[in-house]
What does this fold into?
Amino acid sequence: PYSNALFREAAIEWLIATDQLIQALDHPHFKRMIDIAACATKGVKIPTCKATHKHIIKLFKKKTLITCA
It folds into this structure.
């Protein structure tokens, strides 16, 4: 079950394991991601690296088309 202590421990482990700056926890996008995940009723499905890469390329191409038009 959730507890603030467990979340703090997981957040610190994530910071260390991924070599993030401590300030990453204060970043608005990180907080938004956590707020969204907190609403999940059946856990969170984390996309694969391949799916994430594909989506980023799609967003990049879409943004490039908009700025070049």
Remarks:
- The first helix runs from residue 4 to 17.
- The mean pLDDT is 94.
- Residues 4-68 form one domain.
